[in-house]
Structure formats: structure tokens, C-alpha cells
Amino acid sequence: MTTSPHSDAFVFFGATGDLAYKQVFPALQAMIKRGHFDMPVIGVARSKWTDDQLRDRARDSLEKHGGVDADAFKKLSARLQYISGDYQDDATYQQLHNALGQAQRPLHYLAIPPSMFKAVTKGLAKSGCAKNARVVVEKPFGRDLASAQSLNRTLHESFPEEAIFRIDHYLGKEAVENLLYFRFANTFLEPVWCRQHVASVQITMAEQFGVQGRGAFYEEVGAIRDVVQNHMLQVMALLTMEAPKNSDPDSIPDAKLQVLNAMRPLLPTEVVRGQFQGYREEDGVAHDSQVETFAALRLHIDNVRWKGVPIYIRAGKEMPVTCTEVLVELKPPTPPVFDADDGAASNYFRFRLSPDVLITVGARVKTPGKSMTGTDTELIAHHHPDDEMTPYERLLGDALAGNSALFTRGDTVEAAWRVVEPILGNAVPIIEYQPGAWGPVETARVIAGADRWHD
Ligand code: NDP
């Protein structure tokens, strides 16, 4: 699904920042190690550093994130340059233009606060650095529909949509790609993947921990903005969309857009917002904070495939487990032939997306003996310990190659905001829950089997 030639220079804004430290240097080293990457690497930020200081920072980052590979690091060091300058200053982009030299198709990665996007994209356009270039932008992509639309307008002033790559690192996970593959590479799924056979669809993103000292950051977002609007709705779209028409780069975003547009904007009565007891005592958190650390929602998809099927999303901190999982439950056979009394016949597909990759099928088998009764069993289709590639290695590699399949297109981001827009802010009251519980007990109001979990 490549649209155009490979990029020939990697520019990263925010070179001295946290994201570059935690993700960008390790991804660059990994790409070099696999032999996928050989081009100038130019870091741009405000600190008055030298090239050598950026190299030291890269080494330090790698020591803390997976280790230094002597050979790959040597190659990275030789490619690395640093430009010190303010993003509001035209001179910064002139320096960049000079440093790009012979490069014809640079990729600019904006690992910077969104408040800086406008200055940087304008600076790139004015200086000629945006010509034939791609731009990668980080989350958060807006705080609501209006701010996302405004951000899209800003980006479109300097770059065409096909040159814009909005990162949702969740979509770079091996497990998410496998979900898409498993759905469309197997004939046995398609006939049952619809309202006639599916009883419910549920995505759970549970974390056993709290805000881990990042209270001030979390106060600005909450669970709905942090993970539901982006990661979880994007995964839900992959799970429920129609098959992509062909291998055209727009086929997957087109299919996602169609299903996101079919999702009914949420009603406050279909949502529970929770806050774990003790959150308000965290550093940086207001003593009367109304920010949710848990959200449970019941969605409706108004199309032929899904009409009437309850679609559940729940996400929370201080949950009983740390795990992200998709559960697609099938209806029992009608009329029931066996197990009619205990009503047990339950088939399902379970996709664990993290911490490990797991695909299972829940089925019934007969218990040995004379009576025709059975027990539940689970067939493991695939189990993989960990991602080989980090999402950043995969996604930055794809962006350099012009492959947009795992990125979010502007209209799909806006469509996802449209779904959650009515429940942002305090439209739904906050309910306290005990750490270690599956959210407030009121969750049962919107999600059937709210405290159920397959171990
Ligand atoms: P930081 O605050 O750590 O880094 C910001 C970077 O931007 C620094 O390199 C800083 O340079 C540079 N910068 C800011 N303003 C200017 C300016 N006017 N001129 C020149 N340079 C400037 O942010 P993060 O790395 O944490 O986050 C960056 C983006 O990535 C944000 O949008 C964030 O939401 C997103 N993100 C971050 C994640 C993370 O784990 N950190 C995870 C997912 C997304 P200097 O320090 O030299 O002044």
C-alpha cells in the first residue's frame, strides 16, 4: 500500500523531549539494525545543544530502552545532526533547509506539543522544507470535534492529506494488525460476523495501576480522551468495518470512516464515568476533580451488519488486571439441542492485544459419560509472547515508506470525536469506585456482565 517513493531524510522536532528519548531513538536504532534505514537524521529543538550532545542523549536513551547495539549506534551517530532554534523563528527553518541539502523527500516528525503544530507546519511551508515532504503528527489530535477540525485545517494549509500521518501508536501493535488479518484472511468468520450471530462485542482496556505520578497530565484528559476516542474507537472500527475494497491506501480508512459514521453519537444515559478512590490525593490532581479514570459505554452501530448488537467499551485504571482484550460473543444455537437447561452454550472469539498476543475461540465439548451435557473449552488459535517490533518502529518505518494503512485519516479522527462529543465534560456524573474493582457497580447499567472476565 505504498503511495510514493521512500522518504530520504528523517527530521524530528522535539529532539530533546521525552517522547524522542523514550521512543524515537530506540525506533531509529531498531530500523538501522534491520537494515531498513539509511538517511540523514536531523533533530530540531530549542535547547542550545551540539550534535555531540544529541548523540550522548541518544546513547543514554538506548541504554535505558533496550540497549545499545554498537554497530547500529555507530551508523546512527554518523547520521545524526542537531539544529538549535525556536519553532517561531524563520531562521530555524533556513538552517533546516540548508541541512537537508540533497534530500528531495524529507519526513518531518512532530514529536512536540500540539500548540506548536501551526508554527512548525507554516515554517516548513514558507522555507520550502514541506515540498514533497511527509509529516507525522503525535496524539492528542484535538480535545473535541472543533479543535480536531481546526488542527486538520492547520495541517492542510501546508500539507495535502496524503502527506499527513497521524500516529495512534496502538494501531502499530502486531496484535492489532493480526486482528485485521484474522478477520479478513479466514472464510469461517465472515458468515457469523453480523447481528444474526453476534450477541455482543466488547473491548476492555484495563490497567492495574493508577496515574503513576502523571496526575497533572491526566487531569487534562481523562479516560475518554486518553484512550477511548482514539485507540479504542479505532480498534472497534477495524473490528466492525466492512472489508477494504482493494489494496488502495485509502481502502482501510474509507471502510473505517463508513462504520464510524454509522456509530450513533453517545447518550449520557449509555455511559458510566468512574473515578478510583484516592485519585484526588494524587499530585497535580484537584481535590474536587471531576475527571474520569474509568469509562464504560454502550455503543450502537446503525448499519445492516450490526443494528441491535450491543457494542461495549470499558477502560479504566486501578482495575483487577492489566490487559487489553476484545471479546466477540456469539448467540447460542437456536433452537438449543443440548445444554438447554443450564443455558451454557456460549461461543466467542477473544483477541488479547496486550500484554501478550492471543486469539482464542470459546466452544462447548461433551463431558465424558452417558448424558449429553458439556463444558466450556477454549481453542487457542495463536499465542505470541510479545511484539517483535515496537509500534514506533513499525509506524515510523511505514510513514517513511508512504504506507498510511495504520495511520488515522483526518476524517476518521473527526468521525470518532463526533461519537464521544455529547459525553465530554461533565455531562455524565462521576461515581467513585474501589481500586481493584471493575469500576463502579453502576457499570452494570450499561454493560451486561460488567464484572465478567475470561482468565
Ligand atoms: P516534551 O515537553 O518532553 O518535549 C517538547 C519538545 O518540544 C522539546 O524538545 C522542546 O525543546 C521542544 N519545543 C517546545 N517548544 C519549542 C519551541 N518554541 N521552539 C523549539 N523547540 C520547542 O514533550 P513530549 O516529548 O513528552 O511530547 C511531545 C508530543 O508527543 C506531545 O504532543 C505529546 O502529547 C505526545 N506524546 C508524548 C508521549 C510521551 O510518552 N512523552 C506519548 C504519546 C504522545 P526544548 O526542551 O529544547 O526546549
UniProtKB/TrEMBL annotation:
One of its GO terms (biological process) is glucose metabolic process. GO terms for cellular component: cytosol. It catalyses: D-glucose 6-phosphate + NADP(+) = 6-phospho-D-glucono-1,5-lactone + NADPH + H(+). InterPro entries: G6P_DH, G6P_DH_AS, G6P_DH_C, G6P_DH_NAD-bd, NAD(P)-bd_dom_sf. Its EC number is 1.1.1.49. Keywords: Carbohydrate metabolism, Glucose metabolism, NADP, Oxidoreductase. Residues 11-178 form the Glucose-6-phosphate dehydrogenase NAD-binding domain. HAMAP family: G6PD. Catalyzes the oxidation of glucose 6-phosphate to 6-phosphogluconolactone. This is Glucose-6-phosphate 1-dehydrogenase. It comes from Paralcaligenes ureilyticus. The lineage of its organism: Bacteria, Pseudomonadati, Pseudomonadota, Betaproteobacteria, Burkholderiales. The gene is zwf.
